[in-house]
Write a structure and sequence with these properties.
By secondary structure, this protein is mainly beta. 3% of the residues lie in helices and 42% in strands. A six-stranded antiparallel beta sheet has the order 1-2-3-9-4-7, with no helix packed on it. A three-stranded antiparallel beta sheet has the order 6-5-8, with no helix packed on it.
Length: 139
Amino acid sequence: MRGRAVGAEFIEIWSASQAVPPLTSEVREPNEREFTIMPASGHLLRLIDLYPPSEGGKRTAMHRTRTLDYVVVIEGEVVLILEDGEVTLRKSDVVVQRGTNHAWENRADRPARLAFFHIDAQFAEELLAKLPRPLELMR
């Protein structure tokens, strides 16, 4: 996924469908799969370049995934929008997302590059009881 119509470029680095992937001598390309925000299980590493408004960048939809995400800002500046506010993140900032409803927006004048480490997770029953129904997850 890339280009002005998307407002970003998604660069797949590695993915595995198992929580504990086997280390083998086989040569295989783990990214030869249909694009999804997050595979049904496992984990993935992805770089995302969020374009500035002048290059077609726009705010993403508010979304929630059933993942634990480590996000590192590699270059530029990006705004993390949450239900109760927003935070501006800059180069070297790190955020941990735990299934929260959120959106991203680049309001600066140059692209922002972020590294996303998505890990399949499960919502605890006590948290599920507090989340809105129906629970809509982005995949």
